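To: structure subgroup
Subject: Chain for Friday's discussion

All,

I'm putting the inputs and outputs inline so they're searchable in the archive.
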Amino acid sequence: MTNLKKNLFAAVLLATTTMAVSAQPHTSTVSASVASSNIADVFGEPKTRAKVRADLALWKKAGLDKFHSGENTPNTFSREYRSAYAEYVRMRSGPEYNAEVQRQSGR
């Protein structure tokens, strides 16, 4: 009886291992240049330090920093938050962003 249990256990183990291995997606080795171009396609071109700092400055200027405190998440459905976010998007899409990038670049 012990031998039968061992054989049954081995068969179940083999079956589950085979199913797990066959369920794994096939991956292949990709060159670094292809991988980095795919990342650029998904995330866009990398931002300079000046662009990141300009974006943060506009985020603060719009008042969005006031909605985050500690671990509490802001109520993104409130009228005040939506108004501040709309102002941030307006500035980020307008000439204010380019001016802030220039300022952050030291130009």
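Points worth raising on Friday:
The chain has a mean pLDDT of 81.
Residues 38 and 60 are 32 Å apart (CA to CA).

D.
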